[in-house]
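Internal ticket - ligand job 98, zinc ion:
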Amino acid sequence: MDSLPVCPDPALLAAYLDGTLFSRDASAVDHHTSTCARCAGILAAMRADRAAVQSSKWLSPWTIGGVVTAVTIVAIGTWVVLRGATNPDVAPPSAPTA
Ligand SMILES: [Zn+2]
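stdout (structure tokens):
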């Protein structure tokens, strides 16, 4: 398997950034993000946020943990929204009828 058949879960992208994936899985994520603009964007956002956190040495570990958690939640939310937007089976929310 050279690439992932579907977009990886944001948690998998986070593990990829952490370097905690097996080399085969990391290669698959690497190949997928080289061909998928959406995942490449999510990965770039995660990298930027982590760089910002690492450059802010005055932050406490608790604050860093909160930022990392917030970034992960935003990434998962973005993934879910984009996934729903591209899935024709998911109907958009209907407007309330008066
Ligand atoms: Zn993707």
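Auto-summary: Residues 7, 32, 36, 38-39 surround zinc ion (CB under 6 Å). Residues 10-76 form one domain.
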